[in-house]
């Protein structure tokens, strides 16, 4: 397989103004007839009259031009395209092909999920349906007729508005849909099934009534209300915050069980993984409810950022994804707690995206090349892409950002745009040049920002020196990297609180909050910023709100961190200081373990934790976040060579120490927090449950029989899944032998209770995948044989294999290599059935450079053995070859 380069982009040779599709659904012989109104692209460079259409796995039946049937001397059929020489300037191309949705396990194109037909066309799935110019810069007006058996498939959906329907012979029926908005083929969708729906309506600001429908299997009808409420909130929010109204008369969501990602923003017909749309208190955790809200919003927001303005080519993927993640993050912040959302996003970025950016698959937010685009739906394109948009928002301010967004939508409506088009609208609205900012889009790697301070008591000056560097990444050496424009939001804390800032510097900056807060705009490898009139050395509060996705280095003492934790007025910085204190305490314990010394836990951490637990004035959600120790994944990420076993032991020692020394405080707080008999997924309730279950975790860690029993009682009496699954997890994941009986009973009762709820069974798989113990790999193997497991369902694979490889580091990295072998076997199987998921599951093995030489060898051996697989997909080939390079 070879790479495709952004620099080679060429406009399409032809344009397809209208697309008429006709489907007769059948499991192995779906007949797809297309009539495409095609003309030569006036902007095309080529003089050639050849038309090359993408197409894959289609049994071609006939090809005609303007009604004249072509024979096979007029065209050339290749594995992935159809070439027709000498086409006229303008013509109608009619093609008939047969496809087999029931055999399509890749879940791209038209496939069957249980009894339902559905499609997934992003990025390049449409070419598995019919021959087409399957590229995002070819926009066409689609009219789609779907024909199927009336009894088996009463519901037939596609994009746009329904314009005709009726009965046909042999119990068949049809529905015709018309989408007036020209769109690229990746936004096409079709659904056929025996579905029920909940309906609602939304009136836009301009007074148009929009029909809203969520289609699910009948048994799931009681789990749609939260998605519907989220949809309506999203529609209102996009009008209020971005001035964006919905444009069709109907907006539909369909839930499917078998889906490679979370959801898909097809025009007017979003298709969702059931895990991202269904929610009910009894079966869904608070995190699940929040995910539904966020994904519904994300897909809805794509109607403008992605659909009305789409991407010119797939190198621009972050144009729609980074911007839309930023939009959904702001929406979630407005719906719940802004600080909690910010902390959660920063946590994800630092533990996962920073690791991606430091590994062999690191790539810029706007990649310069790829082999398989499906491999580029990454944390870098999505989450770092959103951080980049957030920095533009910080640099311009909310008002100019909104003007930039309006200009971008106005200028590019109905077009396929680039990241440069987005930035230039922002430049124009903000009245500033952002060329120095573009390193964020063009360079991979996480910049390091090292900050040093010196204080001069005679001049009363406090100076900060900022040094930025960026490590070498696959596409560029460290020395060749351009500096980044880094917005540093900051303040200084004196002994009586925040200090007024009087900066003296050549760095551009803006002051706010009575001059106690500023945003510095670093542009050079090194800057010095002097703050005047400072009476004593302050504690700097840096990167407030996580103002840039960098690794900040400042030599804080534990006391400085406690000052920040307790006194800074920025919630993110308070949380971050607490994390850093935890990291330094865990590192001290780890060093003692490695030196064979008796470890001791710095009492300043337990004192700080006590102050947090007993403080009734803080947001309980923030207290829970601050009391949650950094994950083993994050601790591995910040280590040069990750010693999985000592990281795990050191973290456990600190956790057990906090549990033992603060048992009374945890117990009192646990008992004092309310229980809400009427479940609601609102910020107040979610916050309380998160702190309560955090306390329960520490209390079970004491292995006190009373608390094991209380956890079991909570497990059995909980009336919502958040409390039930929290109790299950703390019992099942406890390493203490006293918890074993409880854990066994709870796991067995859980399956008995929930075996008919596929999404709940996935939680059951995940908990077991994360359980400690030498027998973990055998347990996973036997769960793979369980009646509820199905390797063709991506949710099941993620729940069991993904949870094991990503969230059970001690067992996955067992030095006998058994965890690696298991993952490699699964990847080989998936390579043949679902290459996208195979490539995604490979992630943990690609990080082999992080570990000791013995593990490195074992991991590389598995990668090499996968590489030898006959029929290796492009997806897996790209990930393996880059990770071994
Ligand atoms: N835009 C959607 C991407 C997507 C996707 C990509 C590759 C393979 C399967 C997929 N399903 C959905 C999702 C989103 O970002 O909204
Ligand atoms: Zn998206």
UniProtKB/TrEMBL annotation:
Residues 21-187 form the Aminopeptidase N-like N-terminal domain. Aminopeptidase N is involved in the degradation of intracellular peptides generated by protein breakdown during normal growth as well as in response to nutrient starvation. One of its GO terms (molecular function) is metallopeptidase activity. Its EC number is 3.4.11.2. It comes from Halioxenophilus aromaticivorans. This is Aminopeptidase N. It catalyses: Release of an N-terminal amino acid, Xaa-|-Yaa- from a peptide, amide or arylamide. Xaa is preferably Ala, but may be most amino acids including Pro (slow action). When a terminal hydrophobic residue is followed by a prolyl residue, the two may be released as an intact Xaa-Pro dipeptide. The keyword DNA-binding does not apply.
């Amino acid at each position: 397989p070879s790479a495709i380069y952004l620099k080679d982009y060429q406009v399409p040779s032809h344009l397809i103004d209208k697309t008429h599709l006709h489907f007769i659904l059948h499991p192995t012989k779906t007949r797809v007839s297309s009539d495409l109104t095609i003309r030569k692209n006036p902007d095309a460079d080529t003089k050639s009259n050849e038309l090359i259409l993408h197409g894959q796995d289609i049994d071609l039946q006939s090809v005609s031009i303007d009604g004249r049937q072509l024979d096979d001397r007029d065209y050339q059929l290749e594995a992935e395209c159809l070439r027709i020489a000498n086409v006229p300037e303008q013509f109608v191309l009619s093609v008939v092909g047969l496809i087999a949705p029931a055999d399509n396990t890749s879940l791209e194109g038209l496939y069957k999920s249980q009894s339902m037909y559905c499609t997934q066309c992003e990025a390049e799935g449409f070419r598995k349906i019919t021959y087409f110019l399957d590229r995002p810069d070819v926009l066409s007006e689609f009219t789609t007729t779907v024909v199927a058996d009336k009894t088996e498939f009463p519901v037939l959906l596609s994009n746009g508005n329904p314009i005709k329907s009726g009965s046909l012979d042999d119990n068949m029926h049809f529905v015709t849909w018309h989408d007036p908005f020209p769109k690229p083929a990746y936004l096409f969708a079709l659904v056929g099934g025996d579905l029920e729906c909940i309906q609602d309506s939304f009136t836009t600001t301009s007074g148009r009534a929009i029909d809203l429908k969520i289609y699910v299997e009948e048994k799931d009808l009681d789990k749609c209300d939260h998605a519907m409420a989220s949809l309506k909130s999203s529609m209102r929010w996009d009008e209020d915050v971005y001035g964006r109204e919905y444009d069709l008369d109907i907006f539909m969501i369909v839930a499917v069980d078998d889906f490679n990602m979370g959801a898909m923003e097809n025009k007017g017909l979003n298709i969702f993984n059931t895990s991202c749309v269904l929610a009910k208190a009894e079966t869904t955790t608070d995190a699940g409810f929040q995910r539904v809200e966020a994904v519904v919003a994300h897909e809805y927001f794509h109607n403008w950022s992605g659909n009305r303005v789409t991407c010119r080519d797939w190198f621009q993927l972050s144009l729609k994804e980074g911007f839309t993640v930023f939009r959904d993050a702001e929406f979630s912040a407005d719906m719940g707690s802004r600080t909690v959302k910010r902390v959660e996003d920063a946590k994800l970025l630092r533990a996962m995206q920073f690791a991606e950016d430091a590994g062999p698959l690191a790539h810029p937010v706007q990649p310069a090349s790829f082999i398989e685009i499906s491999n580029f739906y990454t944390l870098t394109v999505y989450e770092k892409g959103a951080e980049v948009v957030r920095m533009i928002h910080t640099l311009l301010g909310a008002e100019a950002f909104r003007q930039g967004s309006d200009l971008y939508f106005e200028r590019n409506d109905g077009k396929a745009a680039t990241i440069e088009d987005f930035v230039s609208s922002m430049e124009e609205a903000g009245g500033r040049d952002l060329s120095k900012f573009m390193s964020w889009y063009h360079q991979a790697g996480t910049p390091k920002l090292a900050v040093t301070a010196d204080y001069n008591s005679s001049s009363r000056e406090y100076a900060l020196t900022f040094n930025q560097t960026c490590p070498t990444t696959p596409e560029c050496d460290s020395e060749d990297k351009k500096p980044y424009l880094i917005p540093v939001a900051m303040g200084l804390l004196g002994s009586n609180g925040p200090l007024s800032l009087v900066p003296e510097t050549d760095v551009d900056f803006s002051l706010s909050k009575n001059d106690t807060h500023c945003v510095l705009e670093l542009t050079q490898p090194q800057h010095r910023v002097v703050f005047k009139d400072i009476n004593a050395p302050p504690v700097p509060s840096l990167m407030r709100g996580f103002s840039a996705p960098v690794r900040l280095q400042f030599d804080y003492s534990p006391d400085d961190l406690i000052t920040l934790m307790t006194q800074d007025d920025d919630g993110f910085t308070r949380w971050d200081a607490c994390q850093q204190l935890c990291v330094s305490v865990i590192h001290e314990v780890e060093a003692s373990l490695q030196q064979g010394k008796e470890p001791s836990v710095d009492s300043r951490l337990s004192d700080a934790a006590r102050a947090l637990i007993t403080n009734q004035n803080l947001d309980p959600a923030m207290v829970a976040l601050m009391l949650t120790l950094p994950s083993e994944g994050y601790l591995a990420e910040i280590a040069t060579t990750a010693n999985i076993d000592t990281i795990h032991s050191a973290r456990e020692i600190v956790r057990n120490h906090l549990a033992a020394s603060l048992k009374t405080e945890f117990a009192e707080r646990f008992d004092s927090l309310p229980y809400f008999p009427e479940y609601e997924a609102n910020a107040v309730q979610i916050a309380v449950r998160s702190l309560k279950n955090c306390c329960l975790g520490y209390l079970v860690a004491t292995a006190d029989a009373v608390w094991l029993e209380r956890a079991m009682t909570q497990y059995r009496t909980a009336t919502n899944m958040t409390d039930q699954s929290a109790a299950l997890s703390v019992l099942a994941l406890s390493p203490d032998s006293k918890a074993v009986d409880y854990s066994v009973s709870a796991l067995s009762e859980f399956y008995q209770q929930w075996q008919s709820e596929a999404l709940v069974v996935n939680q059951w798989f995940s908990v077991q995948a994360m359980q400690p113990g030498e027998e973990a790999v055998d347990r996973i193997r036997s769960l793979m044989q369980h009646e509820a497991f199905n390797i063709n369902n991506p949710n099941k694979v993620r729940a069991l294999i993904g949870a094991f490889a990503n969230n059970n580091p001690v067992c996955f990295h067992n030095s006998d290599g058994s965890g690696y072998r298991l993952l490699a076997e699964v990847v080989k199987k998936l390579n043949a059935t679902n290459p996208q998921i195979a490539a995604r599951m490979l992630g943990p093995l690609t990080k082999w450079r992080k570990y000791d030489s013995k593990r490195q060898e074992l991991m590389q051996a598995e990668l090499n053995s996968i590489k030898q697989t006959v029929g290796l997909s492009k997806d897996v080939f790209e990930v393996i070859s880059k990770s071994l390079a």
